[in-house]
Design the sequence.
């Protein structure tokens, strides 16, 4: 079985190399696979491709001999049956877990739909919520029954397979922009009703904590559209925000900016790092955050043209914590904060309440997701103790950066008198979740040819 799997992997890599080499010789989209080419043609290609084909041929010969051994074939069939059982049990458990998330999301969407219409729950809404909660309970029962069915002899293998499936799902989510930890799910569920009603929501937290990724994920996954985004890094002017007049075919036309586009198309608007906005914009932003679908807005930059705010428009803002670590960040005025009301949510680094002596499970999930392929298989060998040490060090730096640590955790790192006096945080550098994932992705993409220590030193 391992030999056949190795053959399959080798052939996939070989065909990829082969097709790349063939591209240099033909523009045709219909490229043959390497084993379909005759020996005379093969000799024209690089030696590593010839060596690979020869290796596959050796494996084919070995497999041919093995298939003639009836006892071995029977044993292989038995192992395949066991493998199927393991896959089935582990897959069912993942399906139940995804079903629970699905039903929870549907309950949230019912409340969001009701909120957007400005009414109370009616009989049908209550019945729908009751049905979904009943399904949730059923799934819980089925999940427990599935776990009870796992034979003791297969338990560890089922856990291994389940972890692979979980890594694969986490990897796909990370590729889509956001790992759905329990905290992130809670932020989404708590924010969606307000956003669906057109009310603004703000996510506040430290850099690299996935605030912007969260806003994009909500827009793409829950509203089904690509958001308009205004980033307040560096120099931003009113024209970049609202739009400006320009010439086209000798005529003066107005080219709308992201705010106007979002209002007219009914698209979520992300105001990224809103507390870094220049003071002259704050009054304008106050006005924008008060807009709801159906409201009318006059675009001063477009000769005062009146815009009717379309359904689907809402504001998702992000803000960094105000401290010496963030240059150019302003203290948010009470007026601006009042525009968001109760919809200001604090996004902390993952495992913020986990002390450094414990395993930071969400950070570990993120690290694993950054190192695997779509099937949840690790693309590069990395000793468990090295990965564990790196993730724990990243988690420790996050706690030091935010000042969210117990004085015993910082012993030997920060002077004891300073811990007692002001519990300082790091000022310049942190292995934030975003940075940690980026480091591991570079290590993964190099297939280990660039050492982790070299990436960290850079």
Sequence:
């Amino acid at each position: 079985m391992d030999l056949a799997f190795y053959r399959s992997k080798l052939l996939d890599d070989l065909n990829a190399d082969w097709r790349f080499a063939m591209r240099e010789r033909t523009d045709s989209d219909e490229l043959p696979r390497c084993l379909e080419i005759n020996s005379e043609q093969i000799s024209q290609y690089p030696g590593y491709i010839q060596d690979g084909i020869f290796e596959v041929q050796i494996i084919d010969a070995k497999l041919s001999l093995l298939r003639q051994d009836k006892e071995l074939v029977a044993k292989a069939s038995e192992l395949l049956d066991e493998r199927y059982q393991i896959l089935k049990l582990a897959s069912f458990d993942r399906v139940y877990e995804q079903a629970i998330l699905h039903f929870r999301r549907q309950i949230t969407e019912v409340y969001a739909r009701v909120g957007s219409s400005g009414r109370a729950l009616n009989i049908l809404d209550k019945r729908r919520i009751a049905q979904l909660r009943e399904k949730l309970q059923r799934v819980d029962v089925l999940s427990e029954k599935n776990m009870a069915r796992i034979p003791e002899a297969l338990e560890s293998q089922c856990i291994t397979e389940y972890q692979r499936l979980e890594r694969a799902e986490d990897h796909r989510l990370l590729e889509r922009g956001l790992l759905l930890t329990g905290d992130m799910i809670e932020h989404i569920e708590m924010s969606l009703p307000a956003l669906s009603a057109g009310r603004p929501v703000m996510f506040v937290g430290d850099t690299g904590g996935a605030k912007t990724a969260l806003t994009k994920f909500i827009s793409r996954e829950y509203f089904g559209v690509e958001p308009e985004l205004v980033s307040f890094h560096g120099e931003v002017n009113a024209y970049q925000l609202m739009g400006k007049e320009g010439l086209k075919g000798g005529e003066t036309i107005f080219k709308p900016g992201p705010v106007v586009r979002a209002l007219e198309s009914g698209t979520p608007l992300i105001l990224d790092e809103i507390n870094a906005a220049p003071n002259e914009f704050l009054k304008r932003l106050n006005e924008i955050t008060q807009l709801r679908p159906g409201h009318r807005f006059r675009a001063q930059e477009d000769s005062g043209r009146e815009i009717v705010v379309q359904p689907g428009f809402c504001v998702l803002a992000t803000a960094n914590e105000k401290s010496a670590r963030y240059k150019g960040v302003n203290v948010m005025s009470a007026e601006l904060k009042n525009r968001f009301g109760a919809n200001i949510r604090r996004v902390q680094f993952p495992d913020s309440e986990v002390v450094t002596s414990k395993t930071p499970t969400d950070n570990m999930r993120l690290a694993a997701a950054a190192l695997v392929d779509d099937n949840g298989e690790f693309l590069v060998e990395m000793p468990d103790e090295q990965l564990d040490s790196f993730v724990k060090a990243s988690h420790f730096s996050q706690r030091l950066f935010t000042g969210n640590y117990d004085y015993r955790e910082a012993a030997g790192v920060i002077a004891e008198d300073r811990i007692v006096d002001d519990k300082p945080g790091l000022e310049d550098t942190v292995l934030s979740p975003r940075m940690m994932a980026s480091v591991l992705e570079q290590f993964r993409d190099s297939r280990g040819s660039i050492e982790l220590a070299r990436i960290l030193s850079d």
Remarks:
- The first strand starts at residue 201 and ends at 205.
